[in-house]
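Entry for the shared binder. Reason: the reviewer on the internal report wants the predicted structure included alongside the sequence.
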Amino acid sequence: MIARHDVADAARRIAAHVRRTPTVALDGTTVLKLELTQHTGSFKPRGAFNDVLSRVGLPAAGIIAASGGNHGQAVAYVAHKLGLTAEVFVPEVCPTLKRERIAGFGATVVVSGAIYDDAQNACSIRAAQSGAHLVHPFDRDEVMAGAGTVALEFHQEEPDLDTVLVAVGGGGLLGGTLAYFGPDIRVVAVEPQHSQALHAALAAGRPVEVSVAGVAADSLGARRIGDRPFELAATHLYRSVIVSDQAIVAAQQHLWETVRIVAEPGGATAFAALLDGVYRPEPGERVGVIICGGNVDPGTLATST
């Protein structure tokens, strides 16, 4: 399994290509890490850059990926910045906004299947045909180590955190966070009620397939948790909790109304666990929450205040 030193290596490798994102304190015990201010609006460029920059001699066909939208934008952005060709497969659930942004960076966008896993299957077939380097969105050590640099920064900025809440889809951000924190800081995984790949895997003792639906399906809708993230979760995870779609939407609105943060449903999922009381901190417990994405139409949130 990857560990803290792998995350530190990734941080040095990608430092010139990613933003160091800010934090904001909601009160004396809760701090948000605003990863939605990262390039392309989510944490995803960290892992994509680390994966690509770790390779020696990329193929002429460039890079290829499947994504619900955020990873696809990151891969397209990486290709644009490094002068590479990119092809991105997205499912029908991927919002038009995200498809347009992927294409805006010069990548070829292919819509395939209803959900992320359908797009990933088509992408894998295409990668075998074209010879392009496949940048997996979560089940690869280099991608997880890059994503883990969010945790590294958070720890540097807030060294006295007791617990960090992380939204989970396929598990890349969770895996990187667990790799960095290990047993030192409690990590709580938060999933939507209609996409529970990690929760099901923990119950079964291994990754299993689940159904996928709900408001955060485009960013957190993996049918199966990645093998590599699951190994880390089975070793280091403190707790796994589930939030309702209603709680996610309420968290989005609360972030907008109180601190004018425009988070997408997946980006607000970790905060929903705190706001809805699914995770209740102990008195004096310092809690960090990663707001991991903001690719949503702001007009859907600006309805009051």
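Summary line for the report: Residues 191 and 242 are 5 Å apart (CA to CA).
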